[in-house]
Specification:
The chain is of the alpha/beta class. The chain is built from twelve helices and 21 strands. It has helices at about 20-30, 40-45, 55-65, 70-75, 95-100, 105-120, 240-250, 300-325, 325-330, 330-355, 360-375, 380-390, and strands spanning about 5-10, 10-15, 35, 55, 75-80, 80-85, 90-95, 100-105, 125, 130-135, 140-145, 150-155, 160, 180-195, 205, 215, 225-230, 265-280, 280, 285, 295. The strands form four sheets. Strands 7-6-15-16-17-14-18-21 form an eight-stranded mixed beta sheet. It has a six-stranded mixed beta sheet with strand order 9-3-2-13-20-19, with helices on one face. The protein is globular, with a radius of gyration of 22 Å. The structure holds flavin-adenine dinucleotide. Flavin-adenine dinucleotide binds next to helix 1 and helix 8.
């Protein structure tokens, strides 16, 4: 066997997404060492557009833990969203209903803030590593990896955090007989468009129509992010700009509202899946973020759940190192899953309420409009949506 350079840490973290970097940051603040191993380069992660909506609890975590206050300086605070159906818009006023807001702030900026803070604080984050394998989870845990210069290492750690995303390798380390996978696939996907156009509205518009769902979102003054419901097997090459705008027009325009159009800069098909893998802990291994669960993007929960997981995990690890008690580590999985399942329900509900199945008959379509009407015409319905969208209180 080739010689491996041995290094020691307290927590070995696989993955430098929001979950891995936030965990490393929180640990460092408490004086707990960690090493983060990441397969991709810093540049590749910084250039991959993904989530964009942060719950108020996620913003508070970024700001209060000292990552950065850029989110409140440069992000857009949104105090509500619009639900649009039957050609009419209905505002869900978050501030009025639950006294909270969300922030529109791209995941790429969350990454830059977290990676920048870790670097400024002298954190050990190694990008572009290869061949990460985990060993001896029952004894002294070890992670083997090859760094960007081709040097082989053995990282010894007290615990391993698998924050390695939806295709998680770490997840497979839990013996099959001891893990359970919950999975749901949806009969539709999102056709995502980045377009050079002025804002059509100040807040997000979630539009349900006979022709399917559309989401009108914003990025900057001149570039906008929008989505429409499509078939999961749709090929972006079959879509000209004109066909794209025609689809949006048929789903959102009307009653005085007209979408502002412009050249399409990027188009992509985003498939939906709901999955939960339990338990989120196996011996010295803890799963966090997409490694343990994924949600369809309709509820904007993925990134927020990842941050919540590591907040809960950090509390367990901090308590262990301060007191020697494993009580909070032992309940990590169930405490994290409590919020995960609420988010699964909310994401599923938003998805099924707003999307139109291709095979929907007249009854199903009329029932769906009845459901939307029931939500917007009820204070309690609007308040449930507002509370779930902005993030349940007592984020833990
Ligand atoms: C196209 C797209 C659009 C999305 N839109 C939204 C949205 O609008 N709202 C929302 O809330 N969420 C959205 N999400 C989900 C959100 O981006 C994720 O929930 C979030 O990134 C989860 O963070 P994470 O740290 O758990 O995982 P990730 O961000 O996926 O990070 C995991 C990291 O682990 C690395 N890795 C993988 N395997 C290994 C290994 N063996 N060793 C070391 N490193 C490894 C990966 O390279 C990756 O960088 C979207 C996701 C996608 C893909």
């Amino acid at each position: 066997m080739a010689h491996r350079h041995v290094i020691n840490t307290q927590i070995a973290i696989l993955g430098a997404g929001p979950a891995g970097l936030m965990l490393s940051h929180l640990l460092a603040k408490a004086g707990i060492e960690s090493t983060v191993l990441e397969l991709r380069s810093h540049q590749e992660i910084a250039e991959t557009a993904r989530a964009g909506i942060l719950e108020h609890g996620s913003v508070k975590l970024l700001v209060d833990s000292g990552v950065s206050d850029r989110v409140v300086r440069n992000g857009d605070r949104h105090d509500g969203i619009e639900l649009r159906f039957n050609g009419e818009s209905h505002r869900i006023d978050f501030q009025d209903l639950v006294g909270e807001s969300v922030w529109l702030y791209p995941q790429t900026d969350v990454f830059l803030d977290l990676a920048g803070r870790r670097q400024a604080d002298g954190g050990d984050v190694r990008y572009s590593v290869t061949d990460t394998t985990v060993h001896d989870l029952e004894g002294e845990a070890k992670v083997w990896f090859t760094d960007a210069d081709g040097v082989d290492f053995e990282l010894r750690a007290d615990f391993v955090a698998g924050a390695d995303g939806s295709r998680s390798y770490c997840r497979s380390l839990i013996p099959e007989a001891q893990r359970k996978r919950y999975f749901h696939e949806y009969p539709f996907a999102w056709f995502g468009v980045l377009a050079e156009a002025p804002r059509s509205s100040e807040e997000l518009i979630y539009a349900n129509s006979d022709h399917g769902f559309a989401l009108i979102s914003q990025r900057t003054e001149t570039v906008q992010r929008m989505y429409f419901q499509c078939d999961p097997d749709e090929d972006v090459n079959n879509w000209s700009d004109e066909r794209i705008w025609e689809t949006f027009r048929s789903r959102v325009n009307g009653n005085g509202f007209e979408l502002k159009e412009g050249p399409v800069l990027d188009k992509t098909v985003l498939k939906f899946r709901s999955s939960v893998h339990t338990p989120m802990r196996h011996g010295k291994l803890f799963l966090a973020g997409d490694a343990a669960h994924t949600v369809p993007p309709t509820g904007a929960k993925g990134l927020n759940l990842a941050l919540n997981d590591v907040k809960v995990l950090f509390e367990g690890l901090d308590s262990f190192y301060q007191t020697g008690s494993t009580a909070l580590l032992d309940t990590y999985s169930s405490r994290a899953l409590d919020r995960v399942w609420k988010a699964q329900q909310f994401s599923y509900w938003m998805t099924s309420m707003l999307h139109t199945p291709a095979e929907a008959d007249d009854f199903q379509r009329a029932r769906q409009l009845g459901e939307l009407n029931a939500v917007v015409s009820s204070h309690h319905g609007r308040a449930y949506l507002a509370e779930a969208y902005t993030g349940w209180p007592g984020a833990r």
